[in-house]
Amino acid sequence: MDRSKQTAKARKWFETLRDRICAEFEAIEREAGSDAGFAYKKWDRETEDGSEGGGGVQGLMKGKVFEKVGVNVSTVSGAFSPQFASQVNGASEEHPDFTATGISLVAHMANPHVPAVHMNTRFLTTQTAWFGGGADLNPPLPYEEDTEAFHARLRAACHAHNPTYYDRFSKWADEYFYIPHRGVHRGVGGIFYDHLECGDDVEFDRHFAFTRDVGEAFLDIYPQLVRKRMNEIWNEDEKRQQLEWRGRYAEFNLVYDRGTLFGLKTGGNIDAILMSLPPEATWS
Amino acid sequence: MDRSKQTAKARKWFETLRDRICAEFEAIEREAGSDAGFAYKKWDRETEDGSEGGGGVQGLMKGKVFEKVGVNVSTVSGAFSPQFASQVNGASEEHPDFTATGISLVAHMANPHVPAVHMNTRFLTTQTAWFGGGADLNPPLPYEEDTEAFHARLRAACHAHNPTYYDRFSKWADEYFYIPHRGVHRGVGGIFYDHLECGDDVEFDRHFAFTRDVGEAFLDIYPQLVRKRMNEIWNEDEKRQQLEWRGRYAEFNLVYDRGTLFGLKTGGNIDAILMSLPPEATWS
Known about the structure:
- Chains A, B: Pfam families: Coprogen_oxidas.
- Chains A, B: Belongs to the aerobic coproporphyrinogen-III oxidase family.
- The structure is a homodimer.
- Chain A is of the alpha+beta class.
- The first copy, chain A, has helices at residues 3-31, 82-85, 144-159, 165-176, 201-229, 236-256, 258-265, 270-274; strands at residues 39-44, 54-61, 66-79, 97-109, 116-125, 129-138, 178-179, 184-185, 190-197, 280-282.
- In chain A, helix 1 (3-31) packs parallel to helix 5 (201-229) and helix 3 (144-159) packs antiparallel against helix 5.
């Protein structure tokens, strides 16, 4: 069991998945008659002592269908601060070292009939190692059949690995993507999972296979939903609803999302972290 | 020294100030050829045990000059939760009772040359009592002379009461209205003060007089700045800058502002709390 080999394998997958997703999203832009493409920006993680800390690549496309879509891959390593180390699975003040590799994606769509979406999967190592991730659908104007199709595809990916996964992970998503001060969910759910621990190579292989299948499921179903809705006519009132709804999305990410807050308060890459915010939002 | 009389006096002032400010803002709308006016909505504070908890009035105007301006006055009372009581000046688990009365105002302006603004003053009682408040200017496109005029007026209000106030309170505003993850201030500053303790009637009278003068200074200077800039021509690029800048404003309020977070996480009136958010914002 070689942790650095595991991280390298996971990283390779996240980068491959990014390439395939970006190619697919650009193909959708072509179908809509646009020549929009992703622009990529490399960034290096700044460490306090100037040591090598890894970095990432932020991909951003502003297109005709995808009003703003960001896809980040990053592979970083270092030592958590003493206060933080004690809060992280498998880390401690004596053992603050970590590596993290992952992909994260948020798409805000021009047409209010097309759902926005979020997907993120990651592999972390401390004194232990685990996979985590999830995907959730965020339609400003929900269609029951789209919601059902999205969940059905994730359910299939989960069931292929463990009969308990979908129930557990979709409940986790319902709990996580919730805006308490509004008493509403951020979207129509999906799955959220964490701490799929890789105690040995067998467990690594198993959880890695599941995480790949979550990526495959996303890449299969989301473009279908986009293509189904991207040519629907929308009116001003529907656009207005979308912009208000995006205000809720921004509230969730800025007030509650652990990843966002962790990034903001620990000097992460601001552009990459806040890529999730909507291109435009309103509060009436 | 009768705390309830003090609260009643402060409340009366905050309501009078609200009436004068709203009348002045509506007069500005008239001058711009608009007949926009404030709409008022009463709300009652919900207490867990159903006891009387006070409430407030939320005033909202969407005009031609004032794209969205909210002015809230509220007078609430009750008992802090045990966890929270220990964090509040003069409160404790044994003595969780409090009253709070105050005015808060946020104006987001249609023309990017006109500064947005925030003003809030309040009087709290626990086992002790104090005034707090402040005002800060938030120009999307700053003019040095406007910034100077705003500060000069607040400086004069401060100096009339205590030669150390302006230095202390403007520094406090600089520290408070700061967005660490961006490394920038929210606006061009103003004053921020808290815990002007009222141990006896003499202190109450003194700090109440100062708090009234902060309100008077605001009501004197801000309308001057609005009238000076409201007829300036603006182009698309300036509007775009304003919307991006409003994204920063939303970030500050949702990630850092103690009042906003306290309200959101303790079941306050959502509409009144989030009134501070901009009518429209962008994240490019």
